[in-house]
Amino acid sequence: MVELKKALMALVGGVAITLVTGLLPNTSSILVGARWYGYPLAWLIRMVVAPEYFPWKVETVGLVADIVVWTLIVLVILLVAMRRPKTPVEGGPKATQ
From residue 32, how far is each of 26, 29, 48, 52 by CA, in Å? Predict the structure, then answer.
């Protein structure tokens, strides 16, 4: 049950971070006519050349890949942060008071 909770928290965190990275421009200098958003992969495209049409396009593959990447990063952070401390070994040296 605890692992499922961590996985769900990681998924929610991955989706949230992915959506926030949609605000960060990720346009290459050689691309003209569109602005790309998303990090590490550009998944949101805004056409600049023909703005009379609906200028926004979502690249589904890039969006899903970003969600997977950010979910894995959040999961690793959660696993490291929620790691149980090692318990002292019985019969070992005792601390003096």
Answer: 13, 8, 8, 17
